[in-house]
Amino acid sequence: DGGITQSPKYLFRKEGQNVTLSCEQNLNHDAMYWYRQDPGQGLRLIYYSQIVNDFQKGDIAEGYSVSREKKESFPLTVTSAQKNPTAFYLCASSALAGGPRKETQYFGPGTRLLVL
Amino acid sequence: LAKTTQPISMDSYEGQEVNITCSHNNIATNDYITWYQQFPSQGPRFIIQGYKTKVTNEVASLFIPADRKSSTLSLPRVSLSDTAVYYCLVGDVDSSYKLIFGSGTRLLVRP
């Protein structure tokens, strides 16, 4: 069963705590992405990675960090520096990391992060 | 920076055809136009993608005029389950990897 999995579905963060959101894909995709979605809003890009051991900041990277040690995994850490982390977080992947912008992004089911 | 403009919301009734138009005046020459559907608390789902003229698949059609400054997603005979947010996407002219998500169009299908 191919696809993108995210865990956990819900995550609670205490003040000053770092939390890590998991994203795994078995589609053999090169590129992976993290987005944040606030209520009633579109998606905003946090980080993206085109190949293993390389990633770039998106539009709202402050307070977040990522790693790409394996092709199939792209975890996102929400650090204590992110003062307003409550949101819906979506991970996506696409087949090619370059060339014509035709490659479709496939999304995971999302993780909802709430602050206690 | 390519940007898209869509209506904030649309209402329809079951069985009707719905057309959602998106404007993208600054689309790059080699950019495709992609539409996604999103239900509450779920990830967006790919609907259709096109470069020019008309594309049709089992769920929708996409019409793109010659100047490619706009596109229209057509959903034939909508049902209640088509109630969702629909996003039109084009690439970022400064990056081949970034897609620009606007606020989307909230479609409400009534019985």
Describe the protein.
- The complex is a heterodimer of chains A (116) and B (111).
- Chain A is mostly beta strands and 116 residues long.
- Chain A contains no helices and eleven strands.
- Chain A has strands spanning 4-7, 10-13, 19-25, 31-37, 43-51, 54-57, 64-66, 76-78, 87-94, 106-107, 111-115.
- In chain A, strands 2, 4, 5, 6, 9, 10 and 11 form a seven-stranded mixed beta sheet that branches. Chain A has a four-stranded antiparallel beta sheet with strand order 1-3-8-7, with no helix packed on it.
- In chain A, strand 4 (31-37) and strand 5 (43-51) form a beta hairpin.
- Chain A is globular, with a radius of gyration of 13 Å.
- The mean pLDDT of chain A is 90.
- Chain B has 111 residues and is mainly beta.
- Chain B has no helices and eleven strands.
- Chain B has strands at 9-13, 18-23, 33-38, 45-50, 53-56, 61-64, 70-75, 84-89, 91-92, 95-99, 105-110.
- In chain B, the strands form three sheets. In chain B, strands 1-11-8-3-4 form a five-stranded mixed beta sheet, with no helix packed on it. Chain B has a four-stranded antiparallel beta sheet with strand order 2-7-6-5, with no helix packed on it. In chain B, strands 9-10 form a two-stranded antiparallel sheet.
- In chain B, strand 6 and strand 7 form a beta hairpin.
- Chain B starts with 8 loop residues before the first strand and ends with a strand.
- The A-B interface holds A 4, 31, 33, 35, 40-45, 48, 50, 56, 58, 88, 90, 92, 97-102, 104-110, 112 and B 28, 30-32, 34, 41-46, 49, 51, 87, 90-91, 96-99, 101-104.
